[in-house]
Amino acid sequence: MANLSARTRAELPDSAFAYVDSRGQRRLPINDEAHVRNALSRFNQVAFESETARDTARTRLLKAAKKYRIVPVGFITGQVVTVRARAEIAARESEASSLPRGVVTFLFSDIEDSTGLTRQLGNRYARLLAETRSLLRTAVSSSGGYVVDIRADELFAVFKGAPDALGAA
Fold first, then answer.
1. What is the pLDDT along the chain (169 residues), one digit of tens a residue?
2. pTM of the model
3. Strand order in 154-159's β-sheet?
């Protein structure tokens, strides 16, 4: 890939870049095949100003890749994973904002000797676990609590006060 001199880069139109930020900083040149390949590999290193800016740059970059007949399989896979991870983070942040604040009460549940039950029940343990989780979720929500996390046979919930937690228990 030929390096662009400062002068050559300055002479390129904004359309020769996948991303131009609000200050006019131009990033990810897409003026030729080599630069498109480079932009595909560096895309996740750029700090975009917003998700809209990221989406616009992604679209421009993919159009440039198509123009040069580049099939960006790894790029697309990486973007799907990145978008999914961002959605999960946003969902967690949204959930966290609805949790009670200040002095709260936590409830932790665990199935006693779950390993022994797994051996004893075999394939039926999965159904027992699903039913137990459903009962616990219902008890927590009907008592005004919030399920924070469920892992294996454990449940962690938060309540505004002890009476609500005791009601769920």
1. 667 788 888 888 888 888 888 898 888 888 888 888 888 888 888 888 988 888 888 888 888 888 988 887 666 665 655 666 666 766 666 666 777 888 999 999 999 998 888 889 888 888 999 999 999 999 999 999 988 888 888 999 999 999 999 999 9
2. 0.46
3. 105-110, 154-159, 146-151
Q: How far is CA 64 from CA 16, 19, 25, 137, 148, in A?
A: 9, 12, 19, 49, 44
CATH 3.30.70.1230 in the chain, residue ranges: 99-168
Long-range contacts (CB closer than 8 Å, 24 or more residues apart) made by 5-10: none
CA distance 13 to 156: 55
Helix (H) or strand (E) holding 116: helix 114-121
Q: What is the CATH number of domain 99-168?
A: 3.30.70.1230
